[in-house]
Each structure stands twice: as C-alpha cells, then as structure tokens.
Amino acid sequence: METAKPLFSYRPHWAKRFGTAPFLPMSRAEMDQLGWDACDVILVTGDAYIDHPSFGMALVGRLLEAQGFRVGIISQPDWKSAEAFRALGRPNLYFGVTAGNMDSMVNRYTSDRKIRSDDAYTAGAEPHKRPDRAVTAYAQRCREAFKDVPVIVGGIEASLRRIAHYDYWSDKVRRSVLADSKADMLLFGNAERALVALTHRLAAGEKIADIRDLRGSAFMTPRGWLPNEEWVELDSTLIDTPGRVDAHPDPYAENVAPASSASNAAQVVSFQDRAQLRAQRQEQRRHTAVRLPAYEQVEKNNVLYAHASRVFHLESNPGNARALVQGHGERDVWLNPPPIPLTTEEMDRVYDLPYARAPHPSYRDARIPAWEMIRFSVNIMRGCFGGCTFCSITEHEGRIIQSRSEQSILAEIEAIRDKTPGFTGIISDLGGPTANMYRLKCKDDKIESACRRLSCVFPDVCHNMSTDHGPLIQLYRKARALPGIKKVLIGSGVRYDLAVKSPEYVKELVQHHVGGYLKIAPEHTEAGPLNHMMKPGIGSYEKFKQLFEKFSKEAGKEQYLIPYFIAAHPGTTDEDMLNLAIWLKRNGFRLDQVQTFLPTPMAMATTMWHTELNPLKKVLGGRGQAVAVTRAGRSRKLHKAFLRYHDPENWPLLREALKEMGHADLIGNGKQHLVPSFQPAGTGRQSEGPRRMGHVQKPSGPQRGPAQPAGRKPLAKKPSGRRPK
C-alpha cells in the first residue's frame, strides 16, 4: 500500500504560540480571552459541541490545534440566515462543515419518515435544532456569509452523499452533495490525513482550486478533466460487465500484439522483468480514473444505478482503488482514492490530544443524551471488515481496522477515572464499530492491498484474516486490573462469527464483561435475507449462544443474550418473517423494540431497495439478480408485526396474513400456535370467532402474548447505546 506522510510530521503553523484552549471558542468573547484576532479555521457542526474524541468536530478541532491552527466552533447555528455564520468573523483559511456525528436525515426521521421527538446530540435532547440535509444548508450559508472563503464539507453525511445517490426521504436519486452545496471540496471517511495536509497547504498560500491530489478528497471539475497527460479514463461498464469472458492477458507482458496477429508468440520474461512490469502496471492503475454512469443516467436507469453502486464499492480498498468520476450536467464529480489508514502511533496521538472531555460550559447542566452514553466509554479502534450491506460504517471508515495501542487505551481509562465527574468505577464500553475486531487484519499486507472482496467474513471468515483475539483478551484483563476500576463492560456489538473462533475470548467476555445482558445482532434467521445482508447464518449465532451459556453457568451467573433483528430488509419475504417469528417464540424471545430497514445513502442494501437488483452480483447485460423488496405500508407493518408477534395490537394483522399465506394452523391458543384466536378488550381490531360467540378469552396477565415455552427468557429490550454489528 502507498505510504503516507506521517500525520504529526508537519512544521506547526505560527499560531502554535497561542497554546492550547481549554475549549475551542464558540464566541468572540472566548476568542478575546485567548488573545485571538481571528480564527484560521471555523468548524460548523449540527451537534452540540462536546470536547471529547468520540465527537468528530472535537477530534478534528483538537488535531488542527495541535498543528498550530486557531480553530473556532459554530455549533447548531440558526440556518435561516447567514448572520449566525458570521459569529466568529471571517476565517483566515476555510469553513469546515459537517452535519455532526449522524446523518441529519437519519437523526430527524424514523424509518417510517416520521419526525423524531428528540435529538440525542442536542442539549436537553431538544429536536429541530438542525435543518434537513444540514451539510447543504450550512455550506450555502457559509458561502453567503463570506463569499471568498473556501468551504470544505465532511463527516458521515457528506461521505455518504459524495456521488449521485438514492434519497429515501424524497424518494428520488439526488445529485452529489458537492453539486448541491456548492462546496469547494469534500473530504470523505476519517479525513485526518487529508484535512491536515489541506490546511497546511492553504496556509502556505496554495489555492484550493489547485489542490487536486489529496487522497480522500472529492471536488467538481469541468467535464472530461484529467490531472495531466499521464492519466487515462476507463468506462466502468468495461470492467464490470457479464457475458463471455476472454482469457486474461499476461499482466507482465507489455505491447503484446492482438490474438489475431501472427506475432503473438509466448513471451518469456525474467523474474526481475516481471517485478518491473508489475510495478509499471500498479503505477498505471494509480493514474486511471473509472468513469461511472452520469447522474442523469442513474437517475432514470435502475440497472445503471446498481452497476454504479457495485463499482463504487469495489473501488474502496485504499491499496488498489482507482479514482472515480461521475458526470453531473456539464461538470464532473471527481473522487480521489480513499485515504491511507492511520498507524497505531498516529491513532494514539489523535486520541491523546488535550480534550476537556466534557460539553462546552455554555450548556451548563443541560442533559445531552449522546454524551451520557459515551462519557465512560473508550474507543479502541475504527473501521469494519464485515461489509454488512445495510450499514454505512464501511463506506465511511473503511474495511481496514485501525487500532490504538494498549498503553493509550489504558491511559484514557485512567483519565476517565481521575477527571470525569460522576465516574463510579464502571467503564461502559471498550469498543468501536464492533467490539472484537481490535488488531485483527489480513495475514499478508500484499494480499490485503490487492483484495477486492466486499467482506472479509462473508460467506465465511476469509482464511487470510487473522482471528487472534489474544491482544483484546490481554487488554480486557489489564483494563479491569487498574486501580479504581470496578467493572469494564462491553457495549459495542460483538461479531459472534469471529468470537466463536476464539472460545477463550468468549469466556473472558462472558465471565467478566457482561452486566447480565449482552446485545448481539443476528439480524435474521433465514438464508435469503442474511445473504442479502452479507451476514453469517444463524448457526454461528447458535454456536456463540452455546459458549455464552456454558461460560455463564461456569461463572455461576444468570445472563441473557439480547438479539437484534431487522424487518423488511431487501431480500426478505413474508415467509422469511414468519419463520423468524416462529424461531423467536421457540426460543422464548419477546422483542420490546424492533427496527424496520432504513435505506441510508449509498449502502448496498439501499441500492437493492431502490433498484430491486442485487449489486453483490453483476447487473449489466440483462443478467441482474432480482431482489424482493417490501415497500408498501401494510407489508412493512406486517414484517414488523412478525417480530412483535406477542403484542395484541398486532394479532389482527397477523391472523389475516397467516390465513392469506395458508398458515391458519398457527392461529390458536396452544403453545404450538403463533398468535391466539382471542383478542383482549381494547386492543387491535375486534376479531371473529370466540368474540362473536360471546365468550372472549382473556390472557392471565396484562397485555400478555401467546403461551411461551418453559424457561422463557426476559423481554429483550433495546438498550440506548450503539447498535451492534
């Protein structure tokens, strides 16, 4: 993989002399106290400002401060005019704009497009403090406030909208956020490298329009633009089209004549020549831009949309990804290859910066739910190689795991113990996107750089992937042995198909780091939905469950798994949901809260939902694989109702559906039935049968569902923390 300039090797900017701010300023009065006449960079965010590395603006702000730049924060500004964007004056270098830690549309709306009643990232959980599509709204106001100041957009909302994408909330394909926001540049993924390099180059006098070589950056160009004469453009339909496959040319042979030529004799090259030719081929790849179908094409053509999505995801490994280009009218959106992951040393320094580890004092004692959730937790890694099609982590953070050192993590635990008010000795989580991918990586760097798999664990764990949980086990043991630490819980979702490869890890987890309940995400039981999710079969869950129960019993602890499932995911039929409901009842699970599939921008499952095609397979040439999609309101309600088969409010709908599906035998009052034939007074729609005959049967307990098998487990309630992978 290409090497990158070390993150902390730049000569600090002259403003380093001002030192470290207790909090990055959010007002001119705070700037005056620091002795600043201006900010070099102003960061605009849709979240409340919490000076903690789990919050993107704090991490980015402190990183730029460490580079010597004066950074101000404009948090949740009134976007109805440009006035709030002038609060800190004109920045010397640029505005950096993000919607916050969450996509603004996911933050504001449920999967049924209903407005949420609160916002976890706002003081007092107050809703409506950010606009729809916040990146676009904020960027436009920044431009209005100071027309000549560059505007850089980033964060998860911008990352997931960097090319033309299906937007669930407007039910249409929208242009790249670059085109709508009029931003000068977009930085996608965890953008520390690009942001630090960009800021130093702008400070040195370079024009942003001339900075076109940063990995992890995207920008608008004239149609057909190429950086220089070394670059070539390749039509994406030539690299991912089915049909007859010709023999691959010898990758080490140069200037070989066509097959019809008599001169096409076998060419013998030395080992040294092959290495040289391989290097030339890699260099050529670094100067190739793959042209995706234009916005105007994918907007109208589902096949081309699915194809563009597939190519986009195949070009996501920083070791081999090529630049991507997509037409938008008379201009192109140009995407450079993804950023080079941070090293452990760089991760440590980023997380060891002098964060105040608290909300900005201006919020006083206001409750901020997102802060309460993470204040006693530690992020030990980033990235995910799971590749779940419904998840946005891979598109944003990448597949390569970036881990902190043991020393850095333990030091942060001690900082929480010593400096965070209200700490009672319990660390709520050591994790990240997943709980147990810490330090896991491909066994061979060359294989990792060449790999184009969409997942390292589907359909099974790749034989090249290390599954050694030893470093994580050691970290757990050292963390809980620290003075003043009573308990270290694991709140991030455990990837159980990896965990079962290390029974020692499962034992360590279950006997020391579970607080009675452990959340886990099988998502479904049936092969159809699981294949479209790129999730392991339910057999892996059963293996983990056996280990979980075995080690809990050995420790003399009564502990339970809390499973998560998704309703109405692409590739799911009514029969699949029925089978899942039967599995839930057989295993004694009554889910309290359930999730209906929410199509988020650029996720592969969203492509399935929009196009009814499977981008995990080639889609051109009329050979695309169709995907069952549940869109209608009644069908989505039915899939959700199957997950809550025990809720009397769902029984009328379930009875009706079971009869239509030919499964009326599952309606009755015995243990073998899924839903009862009676209907409690005041619930659902009045049913036929026993009620009409005048002897309505009532359950023995309030709102109790159908009879459960012996040894039924407690209700599985959805915690407020991070949803497991």
Explain this structure.
The chain folds into three domains: 14-216, Response regulator (Rossmann fold, 3-Layer(aba) Sandwich); 218-241 and 277-338, no CATH class; 376-646, tm_1862 like domain (pyruvate-formate lyase- activating enzyme, Alpha-Beta Horseshoe). Helices cover 30% and strands 12% of the residues. It has 24 helices and 23 strands. A ten-stranded mixed sheet has the order 3-1-4-5-8-9-13-12-11-10, with helices on both faces. A three-stranded parallel sheet has the order 21-22-23. A two-stranded antiparallel sheet has the order 2-14. Helix 8 links the parallel strand 10 and strand 11 (288-292). The two termini are 27 Å apart. Residues 242-267 and 686-725 have low confidence and may be disordered.
Which terms would index this structure?
725 residues, alpha/beta, Rossmann fold, pyruvate-formate lyase- activating enzyme, 3 domains, ten-stranded mixed beta sheet, three-stranded parallel beta sheet, 24 helices, 23 strands, disordered C terminus
How many domain modules?
A: 3
Taking Cα atoms only, what radius of gyration do you get, to the nearest Å?
A: 27 Å
CATH architecture of the largest domain: Alpha-Beta Horseshoe
- In the CATH scheme, the class of the largest domain would be Alpha Beta
In what range is the share of β-strand residues? 5-15%
**Tally the helices: what do you get?**
24
Roughly what is the average pLDDT, rounded to an integer? Answer: 89
Structural class determined from secondary elements: alpha/beta
Q: What general outline do the C-alpha atoms trace?
A: globular
Describe the strand arrangement of the main beta sheet, using strand numbers. 3-1-4-5-8-9-13-12-11-10
Could you estimate the helical fraction of the residues in percent?
25-40%
Give the low-pLDDT segments: 242-267, 686-725
Strands, count: 23
Could you please say which CATH topology of the largest domain applies here? pyruvate-formate lyase- activating enzyme
Q: Give me the CATH superfamily of the largest domain.
A: tm_1862 like domain
Query: The biggest beta sheet, please?
Result: 10 strands, mixed
Distance between the termini: 27 Å
